[in-house]
Amino acid sequence: MPYTVDFTTVSTVGLESSPVAAALAGLRANEARYFKNKYDHVFTVEPAGNAQTTIDWVDRILREERGIVISSRPLEATAFQVEDIRMAYVFYESGLSVNVMYTVDDSGKRAVGFKLSDGMDVPEELAAQFKFARQKSKLAGTIRGSYFNLKNEY
């Protein structure tokens, strides 16, 4: 059952098993607010069991581009397109959020972004390859983020 993320009343629905559930819910709500404000897109997520195609796509990109395998269990995912940008998000039990921004136009930007929920440690599989910048969010507290550009087509 899809869940529409409400960024005015942050809820941990679907994220309860995370040790940083409240912070991860804030991070998810922060993304929902961004897409509503920028693209007038309503951000909905599905339980991981219903979004395996999206999770597999993100996993493939991480593995093929950088040899990364996320050790945490995926809780939720979503995939959608706004304007000419295909987006995919996976929210993990550890508090990690991974997103893929894939411009449909061949000359566009294509990247993978990582965001760490407030209170979680940098996952071991990311620590050696990335430095994380901090940003403040009213919904999510302190978010640490990093990214890399894609070299291949997916």
Taking all Cα atoms into account, the compactness measure Rg is 14 Å
Sheet with the most strands: spatial strand order? 1-2-3-4-5-6-8-7
Q: Quote the beta fraction.
A: 25-35%
Q: Give helix and strand order, one letter per element, not per position.
A: EHEHEEEEHEE
Shape verdict: globular
Q: Output the number of helix runs.
A: 3
Mean pLDDT score: 95
Give the CA-CA distance, first to last residue: 27 Å
Q: Quick one: biggest sheet?
A: 8 strands, antiparallel
Helical fraction: 10-25%
Instruction: Say what oligomer this is.
Output: single chain
Total strands: the figure is 8
Question: By helix and strand content, what is the structural category?
Answer: alpha+beta
* Regions with little confidence, pLDDT below 50 for 5+ residues: none
Give an account of the 3D structure.
This protein is of the alpha+beta class. It has three helices and eight strands. The chain has an eight-stranded antiparallel β-sheet with strand order 1-2-3-4-5-6-8-7. A hairpin with a 3-residue loop joins strand 7 (133-137) and strand 8 (141-149). It is globular, with a radius of gyration of 14 Å.
Attribute tags:
154 residues, alpha+beta, eight-stranded antiparallel beta sheet, 8 strands
Quick summary of this structure?
With 154 residues, the protein is an alpha+beta fold. 25% of the residues lie in helices and 34% in strands.
Describe the SSE topology:
Layout: E1 3-4, H1 21-39, E2 44-47, H2 52-66, E3 74-82, E4 85-92, E5 96-103, E6 110-116, H3 124-127, E7 133-137, E8 141-149
Antiparallel strand pairs: 1-2, 2-3, 3-4, 4-5, 5-6, 6-8, 7-8
